[in-house]
Inverse folding.
């Protein structure tokens, strides 16, 4: 199949999922056309089945806001016509689903029928999408997609709760790509760990886009409670609007010397390979890909029980779940793993084993089945 994948190119989970999916589809022989305003961060290797098409919004002084959605729509029309795409798969509803719908209508005037699949990822439903300034467009685009998938049962429930949905929605969980985990720490990983934790301290990590919804301040508070009991270091990977507040909190709690802000990292596994525990105390999380990637590297997860996190992090097995904001319990659970070598070993293995429920080999055929069914329907219609 020739598939156009529309995505955000940044470090966010929806972009990572879309890129890893496209890479895996390309390996299976499909021709993949990524369409975005920048080269996706995880698209770092040449593959003969992969193309990247850049959307360049037109700058004109009259526009206070660049009409990105129109530039994207035109690009979808252009790429579909000239590359002969069979279908479009758009990740994150805003504004990708409505742009795909508009492109589909334009292409009909060129006698081209192209179906599009929308994958809802999280805040396109739970935070931003349900806002009155987007809701009518999101409802329309969901109901008029040729197929809709969501990344967790929890997100499906939220979608049905917040929007007037008149169609089927299929759950296709997020997954770990072929090369997105650290199977065994290598000698250079161990050397890096020694630099971060020279006296054998436990290494705790968190990775996100530092938005409010991630509750990074809870990460710091939990870490402080851990460090009060055992020697430990905290790696904060990522960047975003909350960073300044987090730095201030570290100063207030006088833990700066044990906290490393490592910024955006290309490869999550470089962090996971040297970590003993991953913290994800989010306010809402449709799935929690960051947690799954940690599990896949054998790093147990202490998380909140928001949204789809219980579908990813199995309480008492791959780590522990707590109510949002319960930093006391999160710290207690973390210490119960970190303080004992035996527990550490047990949870590391269980974390890795649990992640095997979400391999690309299980998830890819589910997406392929969705594609085949929309193409089949298109033929019948
Ligand atoms: O919805 C967002 O916050 C953005 C999105 C992204 O692009 O990072 O994240 C969501 O999609 C990920 C991939 O499906 C999920 O793993 C994240 O849980 C989800 N984020 C939230 O629901 C907050």
């Amino acid at each position: 199949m020739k598939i156009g994948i529309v995505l955000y190119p940044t470090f966010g989970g929806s972009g990572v999922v879309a890129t890893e999916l496209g890479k895996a589809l390309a390996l299976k022989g499909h021709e993949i056309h990524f369409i975005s305003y920048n080269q996706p961060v995880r698209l770092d290797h040449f593959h003969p089945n992969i193309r990247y098409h850049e959307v360049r919004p037109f700058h004109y002084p009259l526009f206070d806001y660049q009409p990105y959605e129109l530039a994207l729509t035109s690009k979808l029309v252009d790429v579909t016509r000239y590359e002969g795409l069979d279908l479009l798969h758009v990740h994150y509803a805003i504004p990708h689903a409505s742009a795909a719908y508009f492109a589909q209508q334009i292409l009909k005037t060129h006698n081209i029928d192209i179906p599009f699949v929308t994958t809802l990822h999280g805040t396109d439903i739970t935070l931003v999408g349900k806002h009155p300034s987007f809701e009518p467009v999101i409802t329309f685009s969901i109901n008029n997609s040729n197929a809709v998938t969501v990344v967790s049962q929890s997100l499906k429930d939220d979608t049905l709760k917040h929007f007037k949905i008149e169609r089927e929605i299929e759950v296709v969980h997020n997954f770990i790509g072929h090369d997105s985990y650290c199977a065994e720490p290598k000698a250079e990983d161990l050397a890096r760990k020694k630099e971060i934790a020279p006296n054998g301290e436990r290494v705790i990590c968190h990775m996100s886009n530092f938005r409010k919804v991630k509750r990074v301040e809870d990460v710091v508070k939990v870490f402080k409670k851990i460090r009060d009991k055992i020697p430990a270091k905290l790696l904060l990977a990522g960047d975003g609007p909350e960073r300044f507040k987090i730095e201030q909190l570290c100063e207030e709690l006088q833990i700066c010397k044990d906290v490393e802000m490592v910024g955006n990292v290309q490869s999550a596994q470089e962090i996971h390979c040297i970590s003993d525990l991953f913290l994800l105390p989010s306010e809402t999380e449709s799935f929690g890909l960051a947690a799954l990637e940690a599990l896949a590297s054998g790093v147990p997860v202490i998380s909140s029980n928001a949204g789809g996190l219980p579908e990813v992090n199995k309480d008492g097995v791959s780590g522990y779940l707590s109510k949002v904001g319960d930093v006391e319990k999160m710290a207690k659970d973390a210490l119960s793993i970190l303080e004992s070598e035996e527990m550490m070993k047990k949870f590391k293995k269980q974390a890795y084993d649990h992640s095997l429920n979400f391999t690309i080999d299980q998830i890819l055929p589910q997406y392929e089945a969705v594609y085949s069914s929309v193409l089949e329907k298109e033929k019948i219609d």
User: Anything to note?
Assistant: The longest strand covers residues 202-208. The chain has a mean pLDDT of 95. The longest helix spans residues 360-380.
